[in-house]
Amino acid sequence: MSGVIVENIRKSYVSREGFRKKRVVEALKGVSLAVRRGEIHALLGPNGAGKTTLIKILATLLLPDDGKAYVNGYDVVKEAEKVRSVIGVVLDVSKGFYTSLSGYENLVFYALLKGYSYGEARKRVREVLELVGLYEMNAHNRPYYTYSLGMRARLSIAKALLTNPPVLLLDEPTLGLDVESAKTVRKLVMDLAKEGRTILVTGHNMYEIEQIASSITIINKGLVIASGAPADLKTRLGLMLRVSMRIGDVNSNVAEYVKNLIPVEKISMEFNADSTRIVFYTKASREEVIQGIMQIHKSFDVKIIDLVIEEPTLEDAYIAVVGGEHGS
Ligand SMILES: Nc1ncnc2c1ncn2[C@@H]1O[C@H](COP(=O)(O)OP(=O)(O)OP(=O)(O)O)[C@@H](O)[C@H]1O
C-alpha cells in the first residue's frame, strides 16, 4: 500500500481582475503519482508548476476540484481529520514562528496547540529539537530572530515532527539555504526516511534531489511530464555521458578511431602544441566508453593524459523535458 496516492488531481484558482473580469489559472491539470511507504519521493518542477498546490491539497489546506488523493489510505477530502493526524507539513521554512520567542518556546506553544499536556509538550519538544540537531547546537534557547536560515529550516522540520507523523510533506525545505545547511537538511530528511517515514519533498534543484530521492515526478504547468527512479529517468530521457579526453599527440584521426569504437552523438577536437583535447557525447554506458578508450590506447598507441567521464545530472533531465521554460 502506498503512503501517498494522487489520482488525476485538478485544481484551478479563480481570481478577479477588475470589476467583471475573472482570471482562471489551472494550477493542476490532472496530476497522478504514488509514493511508497518509507520512500522519499521528489516532486520537481519550475516556479509555478503546481508543486505547492499539490502539497496543500495533500495537507488538506486546499480542496481539489477533481480527482482523488489518499495519505496512508485516508481520503484527503472525506477523511481530512485523519489525514491531518498522520502528516507533518513544512510549507515555508521561514514563516510561522514568533520571532522574539526561542525555538524551544515556539515549539512548546505548538505542541500545546496539538493537545499535549505541558509536561508531555516539553518532553516531545526536546526530543524533536535533538532529532534536528538544534539541541546539540545549543540553539534551542536563543530567540528565533537570531536563527540562520538553516536553523529556521531545522526548526520547521522539528515542528512538523511534533506528533511523530508517519508521512512528511516538505515544500522546498532547502530553499535559500547555503550549501552546508542544505546538505544538513538533506541528511536529516534521509535519516527521517530511514526511520520508516514516507516523505514527499518538492524542489527545483535536481542535484539535491538526485541525492536523496528514490523516485521522482517532474511536473510543469500543472502536468506530469516525466516520472521514475532518477537513473531510469536519465536513460528514458536519452541523456548522454560527456567524455573529455586529452591525448599526448596532435592527431586529427583520433576522432575517427573514437567514432569507430563508441557510438558518438557529437564530437569536437581542439589541437594544442603537443596534445589534442577530444570532447564527445554518447548514449553508451560508462563501461562501454572505458572499453572503447582502452582499445584506442592499445591499438593506436595513443597516450591518454587525462580522461573525465561525466554522468548526466537530473538538471540535464530537467532541461531536456522542460526546455528553456525552467525557473530559477
Ligand atoms: N492563491 C492563488 N491564486 C491565484 N493563482 C495562484 C494562487 N496560488 C498559486 N497560483 C498559481 O497557480 C500556479 C501554481 O502555483 P504553485 O505555487 O502551486 O506552484 P509551485 O510549483 O509551487 O511554484 P513555486 O516554486 O513558485 O512555489 C501558478 O501559476 C501560480 O501563480
UniProtKB/TrEMBL annotation:
<keyword id="KW-0067">ATP-binding</keyword>
<dbReference type="InterPro" id="IPR017871">
    <property type="entry name" value="ABC_transporter-like_CS"/>
</dbReference>
<keyword id="KW-0547">Nucleotide-binding</keyword>
<keyword id="KW-0813">Transport</keyword>
<protein>
    <submittedName>
        <fullName>ABC transporter ATP-binding protein</fullName>
    </submittedName>
</protein>
<dbReference type="Pfam" id="PF00005">
    <property type="entry name" value="ABC_tran"/>
</dbReference>
<dbReference type="InterPro" id="IPR050763">
    <property type="entry name" value="ABC_transporter_ATP-binding"/>
</dbReference>
<dbReference type="InterPro" id="IPR003593">
    <property type="entry name" value="AAA+_ATPase"/>
</dbReference>
<feature type="domain" description="ABC transporter">
    <location>
        <begin position="4"/>
        <end position="246"/>
    </location>
</feature>
<dbReference type="GO" id="GO:0005524">
    <property type="term" value="F:ATP binding"/>
</dbReference>
<dbReference type="InterPro" id="IPR003439">
    <property type="entry name" value="ABC_transporter-like_ATP-bd"/>
</dbReference>
<dbReference type="InterPro" id="IPR027417">
    <property type="entry name" value="P-loop_NTPase"/>
</dbReference>
